[in-house]
Design goal:
The protein has 564 residues and is of the alpha/beta class. It has 18 helices and 17 strands. The protein folds into 3 domains: 91 residues, no CATH class; 288 residues, Metallo-dependent phosphatases (Purple Acid Phosphatase, chain A, domain 2, 4-Layer Sandwich), CATH 3.60.21; 129 residues, Flavocytochrome C3, Chain A, domain 2 (Orthogonal Bundle). The strands form 4 sheets. Strands 4-3-2-1-13-15-14 form a 7-stranded mixed sheet, with helices on one face. α3 runs parallel beside α4, α9 runs antiparallel to α10 and α12 crosses α13. The protein is globular and about 85 Å long.
């Protein structure tokens, strides 16, 4: 399939455009500070405000994508302070209550779990979290929901149990129950949006399924064939707008829907902040939204006064993403031109490449200046046009009181929920090392211990306690030592192993403590932790800026690997 993409993107471009707004530290700069913890960042909250939706107003879709079981920001690094189900609901309700235009609130799916390969059947915590999320979606006035592979990660029965408590319409087009008598969702849903009718469809690429999704209970059909059939239903065919929720690899989805010209918009999730980028996929427009509730999408739609099946055009000249890319390209071209000038002797004719680069620079600069100086976007009556905005859920957005109280109750209940079935970690195999705890390590390695106490690793467990998350199965493992390892820690069994201690990096130390040196060399211990150990917790979802050399340097100091 031929997919048009922004022609100016240079995938190898490593330069970043930096805006400096005086010497005063802005909120955004503080958000991006590598030294600021999430707990510190919460002090940024001054008074709640509702993000402004600039005119023009038009029939609007408020869109949630890939919550992935996230009820509040993880808080491990600065970038993931965005989100929080209480703020999502508060922001949506503020927009909805003030709306003077028709709107629908939709959730594309992938709501229930943060990962698709569950280690076991859904836990009591999974049930409690699903109930909280459905309550929040109810408060958000969600009317249509897609079904994603992460919704099915706990099995079809778990999905049915949780979805049955919801009054919204669930949609799945190419994935159906293997038992055709089970009425779990519909292949499409048509809803009114002002004077328009909108048909919603939902597909899951087969490659998006992993273990735990109960595939035997599901019939997964070919995406192209399933969509082609469903798009011929009169209700769908005659709708003014057809929107597809897509789950799976973006390129595979694009290939699967090639040559299908009757889809107007395709919406999918992203691990990166996609902001307001719009991709052109032949007749369709593809929109992506930051996952885990870190952003909410706002799609405003203006249909031509005379009925037309023409493509939907972006009423905004250049998106914020594209403007950033223009700035980066200008910086890149400036470097290239400067390098050519440095190699050109006085009086020597500049190479033709310099003139080519200068012409490109002038063209890009003209486009960027036109976009920056353009008047506010306005819809034209003779065109199908849209405005797409990705609104970050930042810490100073309004909080919905009922949802926030439910979240606090959920966190507080986790101790009782998860201690009921808590089991101690298994003992080590004969001859294998066991965990001894930092106190015993520090008895010999005092300088290293003193430095470790100055690092965030030494207070990792306290950050959970401050947020009432010390019994959250999704959090504890990265804030203790030896989680679920033989002789290590588990929920309810963390004494002596709280925080990210020495043995998190160096391995269990009992054999080393008993016989630390052989022939003048340390034994029974891993002296240097490789990136694999770090990546078990510093995942792309929870530690968006992780870079092994940079992060490693932060935990080295006096008596702990620091090289003078």
């Amino acid at each position: 399939m031929r997919r048009a993409s922004f022609i100016l993107v240079l995938t190898t471009l490593s330069l970043a455009w930096t805006l400096v707004a005086g010497c005063k530290t802005t909120a955004q700069e503080r958000l991006q500070s590598p030294k600021m913890s999430t707990i510190d960042m919460l002090a940024w909250e001054t008074k709640h405000r509702v993000p402004a939706l600039d005119a023009p107003y038009a029939p609007t879709l408020f869109i949630l994508v890939d919550l992935e079981g996230t009820i509040e920001p993880c808080g491990c690094t600065e970038d993931v302070i965005y989100g929080g189900i209480s703020r999502i609901v508060g922001t949506l309700r503020a927009w909805q209550d003030a709306a003077t235009y028709p709107f629908l609130t939709i959730n594309t799916g992938n709501t229930l779990f943060a990962f698709s390969s569950l280690q076991a059947a859904p836990t009591k915590q999974d049930h409690a979290r699903a109930a909280l999320l459905h309550e929040a979606l109810h408060h958000s006035r969600v009317q249509v929901q897609g079904v994603g592979p992460l919704d099915l990660a706990g099995g079809l029965e778990f999905f049915e149990e949780t979805a049955s408590k919801d009054t919204t319409s669930f949609v799945s087009t190419n994935v159906k129950p293997a038992d055709s008598t089970r009425n779990v969702w519909a292949p499409f849903h048509v809803a009114a949006l002002g004077e328009m009718t909108v048909a919603f469809l939902n597909v899951i690429h087969p490659s998006a399924f992993e273990s735990g999704s109960d595939e035997e209970a599901l019939a997964v059909e070919d995406i192209h064939e399933s969509l082609t059939e469903t798009l011929h239903y009169p209700e769908v065919k005659n709708a003014d707008l057809r929107i597809l929720f897509a789950h799976g690899d973006v390129d595979l989805i694009a290939d699967a829907i090639q040559e299908i010209t009757s889809l107007d918009f395709v919406i999918f999730g992203s691990d990166e902040d996609a902001e307001d980028r719009v991709r052109a996929w032949d007749h369709s427009r593809a929109l992506s939204l930051w996952s885990q509730g870190r952003a909410v999408g706002v799609l405003r739609l203006s249909r031509a006064a005379s009925s037309t099946d023409g493509p939907w055009e972006n009423a905004r000249g250049l998106s914020q993403n594209e403007q950033k890319e223009y700035r980066s390209l200008l910086a890149y071209l400036d470097e290239q031109i400067e390098a050519l000038d440095a190699r050109t002797e006085p009086g020597e004719t500049p190479p033709r490449m310099r003139n080519t680069l200068a012409q490109r620079r002038a063209h890009y600069l003209e486009k960027l200046e036109a976009a920056e100086n353009a008047p506010p976007p306005a819809f034209e009556s003779d065109k199908n046009q849209f405005l797409w905005d990705s609104i970050r859920i930042t810490p100073n957005l309004p909080v919905h009181a009922d949802t926030e109280n439910a979240r606090l109750r959920y966190n507080h209940a986790l101790q009782q929920i998860n201690l009921q079935d808590a089991l101690p970690p298994p003992p080590p195999a004969p001859g294998q090392a066991s965990y001894v705890g930092a106190a015993q390590c520090i008895a010999c390695h005092q300088d290293a211990g003193a430095f470790w106490k100055s690092t965030p690793h030494a207070t990792a467990y306290a950050t959970l306690q401050e947020r009432d998350k010390a019994y959250d199965l999704a959090c504890v493992g990265c804030h203790v030592t030896g989680y679920h390892a033989p002789s290590g820690s588990a929920v309810g069994y963390t004494d002596g192993l709280q925080n990210v201690q020495c043995e998190s990096c160096h391995g269990p130390g009992s054999l080393h403590a008993h016989a630390p040196v052989l022939a003048g060399r340390p034994q029974h211990i891993e002296r240097d932790a490789d990136a694999t150990r770090c990546l078990s917790c510093h995942t792309s979802a929870h530690s968006t800026r992780f870079d092994y050399p940079t992060y490693r340097a932060r935990i080295l100091g006096a008596g702990h690997g620091d090289v003078p």
